[in-house]
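Need tokens for this chain, all 157 residues.
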Amino acid sequence: GFRENLELQLVGQVDYSVKEAYEAARLSDNVKLPGSVSRQEALQRTMDSPILLLLLNQQPNAKGRIPGKLFEYLASRRPILCLGPTDSDVAGILTETKAGTTADYEDEEAIRAALENLYRKFREGKLGQAVDSSIDAYSIEKLTGQVAGFLDEIVKG
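Here are the structure tokens for all 157 residues:
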């Protein structure tokens, strides 16, 4: 079942409240805490993961913030499960690119539905990689080109 197939890797520093939450849910055997790793290892773990979890903060500014990790996740073309505001910029990007799903932290039904959908695809061997070409609009090359274009416009006045 789901529990037997679940492995959650939390790379980096993990807040004690997160540890309390997964212990309370009796998921200690499913959670791996490798601690801080090199950037190269973090990227490799991203590429090796069938599903990526993106946690947005629960502050009011979360709606307009786009963490750099999102771009790394998009580049991996792995399915992304985001927990955070469903009306955030991140949620919009995930919807636009078909790269993932966003569920609000408090919406247990939406989280469960997203997990069940991902698990079903995993069991059927249909998880695959996100291939929507709109992801390319968020590549470092494309974004850097846009910034360069903006700077050219500013300089030319």
